[in-house]
Amino acid sequence: MILRHAREPLDGQPTENTFEAIDERSGANLGLCTIYVHECAQLFPARPTRIYLDIQGDPAPDALLGASVARAKEIALQKGGPCRVFTQVEPEDAERMSALAALGFRDSDGLVRMRRELPAAPTGEMPIGCVVVRDDLDDPIEQKYFLERYNQLFSETYDFEWLQDFRNREGFARILIVAPTGMAGEMVIWREGDAGVIGWLYCSKKWRRMRVAQRLLELACAEFEKNGLQRAEVEVQARIPNILRVMERAGFRQAELILRYPGIDIG
User: Which helix (H) or strand (E) holds 111?
Assistant: First the structure.
């Protein structure tokens, strides 16, 4: 087996952040890993540098995994602050999890689907001075500000074309809680079959810990119930601070592990 960097940049990443495993006899590709570095301080303030390993190959050769992890650790040291090196694994892929565990990865994060059956009585109250606004995000200025918030929070570069696809989902709507001084919280919802989906939940920093997020979730459930849906669902990343607690306070319970995000905390 030959282990080498990709001959050309992959997905905009420098070649030194790519590794290919090649069969010496056939020339077949045995595996590929591309390393991505994101700064995501809003979602992960304790470890803002996120180093993601996109690993391809079933199974991926141990040498490929080892070289990729070594390079990721080198990047983390260059950054100098708290980092998390991580990848994604299907929940049932025990072989990949075992190979990663041997390299120091811990199964300490994941994408979780949470669910609340409907109908369900609301328990929260609207923050004093706030009102609810509902729209379909069709104003160009509002679209611009929404994209800026979304991209900043998730360290992404989505554009208006992506947003149009987002808005074309069945039953799409945006619900806001607006205070006299500006937006307190924002949520995007749609429907999939007999379930209502919460696809985006945002709370302005000065309104956090004031149950704005919980009230938005209850407003979503009321909207779903009004439209005859049987349950509300949301996908959350378990390691985002306090997200599971917020969802549980609003009556949501963990229903399914969609992806594992094993990782190594550095610094």
Answer: strand 110-117
Question: What value does the mean pLDDT take over residues 79-85?
Answer: 96
* Torsion sign over Cα 94, 253, 202, 196: positive
**Do you find a cis peptide bond into 122, omega within 30 degrees of 0?**
no
Average pLDDT of 19-29? 93
Taking a C-beta distance cutoff of 8 angstroms, is the pair 89, 73 a contact? no
Tokens 């708290």 locate to 82
Of residues 198, 174, 196, 197, the one with CA closest to residue 186:
174
Peptide bond into 127 cis (omega under 30): no
Distance CA 31, CA 25 (A): 15
Predicted TM-score of the model (pTM):
0.91
pLDDT above 90 (res 177): yes
Task: Return d(Cα 216, Cα 126) in angstroms, integer.
Answer: 9
Quote the tokens at residue 194: 């007999």
As a whole number of angstroms, the distance between CA 147 and CA 162 comes to 10
Residue 100 to residue 87: CA distance in whole angstroms: 9
Cα 266 to Cα 46, 55, 75, 84, 155: the distances in Å are 11, 20, 11, 6, 20
| Strands 253-260, 231-237: pairing kind | unpaired
**DSSP per-residue codes, 90-139:** -TT-HHHHHHHHTTT-B---EEEEEEEESS------PPTT-EEEEE-S--
DSSP per residue over 140-159, as a string? HHHHHHHHHHHHHHHT----
Give the Å distances, CA to CA, from 31 to 46, 60, 96, 109.
32, 5, 13, 24
